[in-house]
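Subject: for your reference before the review

Hello V.,

The reviewers asked for a structural picture of the protein, and I figured it would be easier to keep everything in one thread rather than splitting it across files. Below is the amino acid sequence we used in the manuscript, unchanged from the supplementary table.
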Amino acid sequence: MDKAGIVLRVFFEDPFWIIWVEVYVDDRQMISQNVIPKEFNDQEVYHWIIQHYDHLRFCSTDNVVEKSIHKNPKRSIREIAKQMKQPCVSTKSQNAYKKAMQAFLIQQKKEHHQDVSAQKVERFEKKQQKKKRKHRGR
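And here is what came back from the structure prediction:
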């Protein structure tokens, strides 16, 4: 049975507005964090997601098991309003995104180090060839 869902969180972390997009498919969760230039209303967030969804870079988290329990719609509206009033704290998805970003940065650092060392070797070889050419010219 396929279950899918999407959760959007928009919050302000001085000086940026941030959109968290969490996508749930079956028992998998994928997240993406994006910085937006200004505060959006609901309609602008909807249009932004439609325009930029293909370009979002998602990272997956650990498997998530979500229970499907039928709730009273009025109760769910009250719970949503209650969550909107609470200040945003670090969530599981934010922690997972931090881990993914750290892994990405470590990978980038390794690749950069390899590129720099390859360039050093190449420059050294060019210097050696230049020395040999000068020496042969005597």
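For the response letter, the relevant points are probably these. The chain has a mean pLDDT of 81. The helical segments are 42-52, 73-85, 92-136.

Happy to draft the paragraph if you're swamped.

O.
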